[in-house]
Amino acid sequence: MKRWVLFIIIGLVVLAACGEPTPPTIGPLKIHGGSPNIGELTLSATTNCALRGETIMFTLRVVNPADYPLQFTNPPFFDMTIVKTKGVQIRWSDTDQYPSAINPVMAPREVREYHWEWVSNMEGWLSIEVMTAALPPGDTTPNINQASLYFGVTYMSWEQGGVGGPIDCVELKR
After folding, report:
1. Residues in CB range of 149: below 8 A, 6 or more apart
2. CA 93 to mean position of chain CA atoms
3. Per the domain annotation, does 29 fall within a domain?
4. pLDDT tens figures, 86-131
5. Which of 28, 34, 47, 90 could disulfide-pair with 40, CB 3.0 to 4.6 Å?
6. Residue 69 three-state SS
7. By the 8 A CB rule, do 44 and 58 touch?
C-alpha cells in the first residue's frame, strides 16, 4: 500500500475517534484579573446561559494583597456593567442594589465582596464587565484594572474546532 494512502486512512481513523464536539453545559463562570499593585479582581456569575426572566447573581471580589493601602479613583467604585454589542445596557451603580457608600481606600490585605442580582430582561450574547482605577502610593496616574465574563440569555455563542454557532439555553443540560 502506498504511504500517502496509509496517512489518509490513519487521519480518517483519528477523526472518527474524536467524534462530535461536546456542547457546553449550564454552569457558573469565574475570571481573575489584576495585580498586587492595583488590587486583584475575581468576577463570577451563577450561570453561563440563562433563560429570559431568570435571576443571575454576579459577584465581585476585590483583594488588596499589598502591604500598603490602595486608593481607588473615578467613582462609582467597583461598578459592574452589562454590555451588549451596542454598548452598556445597564450599570450596577444605577440600581438600588449598589451600596450607598463605598470606601475608596482599601487597607493592606483587605478583602471585599459585592453582589448584584440581575433579572435577565434582554436576550443575546452579553458580557458583565468591571473596571477599577487604583492609585498606589507614590504614583500620580491611576492604574486601570478590569475583568469581564461572557454569558448568554436565551442563547449563547459556542464554537469548538470550527464547529458551532448560537445554541439555545433551554437545550443545554441543566
Report:
1. 29, 30, 31, 43, 44, 45, 127, 128
2. 18
3. yes
4. 888 999 999 999 999 999 999 999 999 999 999 999 998 899 999 8
5. 34
6. coil
7. yes
Q: Which residues pair with 116 in a beta bridge?
A: 58
Place of cell 448560537: 166
pLDDT tens column, 30-70: 988 887 778 899 999 999 999 999 999 999 999 999 999 99
Q: Is 7 part of any domain? A: no
Q: What's the half-sphere exposure (Cβ side, CA atoms, 13 Å) at 114?
A: 21
Structure letter (DSSP) for residue 82:
E
Instruction: Show the domain range for 73.
Output: 25-171
Q: How many domains does the chain have?
A: 1
C-alpha to C-alpha distance for 13 and 7, rounded to whole angstroms:
10
The DSSP string of 94-156 is GSTTS-S---SEE-TT-EEEEEEEEE--S-EEEEEEEEEEEE-TT-SSPEEEEEEEEEEESEE
Cell 500517502: give the residue: 4
Say if CB 45 and CB 128 are below 8 A apart: yes
Is residue 13 a part of any domain in this protein?
no
